[in-house]
Amino acid sequence: MAGAQAIDIAEVIAASGGSGRFEGKDHGSPVSFFYVTSEPGKGASKHRHPYVETFVIIDGDIEVTVDGTTERMHSGTIAIIPANTWHEFTNRGDRRALMVNIHPTDEMIQENWTE
């Protein structure tokens, strides 16, 4: 059995232009994710995916809006975003937030909201 493949998170952040985007297909993994470090007042604008997305909020105070319903999530919270639902999030804390947003696919698919 082969050993574990170690990937430095700083390399993932640098390779994705600072977004912390990890595409599983590039590393032989069936899972993708965003390693999110979000400054106060910042986040992701409205978008959706054709699969469930799971947010693991490690540190911070995140406001999550899913199909028009807004909830506050805090450190130690897991949010499960249903497939095909429009969603967005914003850091509502007073310091940088840290979360990992898991996509159960080796390649992320995202449709951004347009008005």
Tell me what you see in this structure.
The chain is mainly beta and 115 residues long. It has one domain (16-108): Sandwich (Jelly Rolls). The protein has one helix spanning 9-15; strands at residues 21-22, 32-38, 43-48, 53-59, 61-66, 69-74, 77-81, 87-91, 97-103, 111-112. The strands form 2 sheets. It has a 5-stranded antiparallel β-sheet, with helices on one face. The protein has a 5-stranded antiparallel β-sheet with strand order 6-5-8-3-10, with no helix packed on it.
- Tell me the CATH superfamily: Jelly Rolls
The helix-strand sequence is HEEEEEEEEEE
Helical percentage? under 10%
Give the low-confidence spans. none
Beta strands, count: 10
Overall pLDDT:
94
- Going by helix content, strand content and strand pairing, the class is mainly beta
Silhouette: globular
Count of alpha and pi helical runs:
1
First-residue to last-residue Cα separation: 51 Å
Q: Can you list the strand order of the major beta sheet?
A: 1-2-9-4-7
Rg value: 14 Å
Task: Please supply descriptive tags for the structure shown above.
115 residues, mainly beta, Jelly Rolls, 5-stranded antiparallel sheet, 10 strands, 6% helix, globular
Task: Provide a quick synopsis of the model.
With 115 residues, the protein is mainly beta.
Give the arrangement of secondary structure elements.
Elements: H1 9-15, E1 21-22, E2 32-38, E3 43-48, E4 53-59, E5 61-66, E6 69-74, E7 77-81, E8 87-91, E9 97-103, E10 111-112
Antiparallel strand pairs: 1-2, 2-9, 3-8, 3-10, 4-7, 4-9, 5-6, 5-8
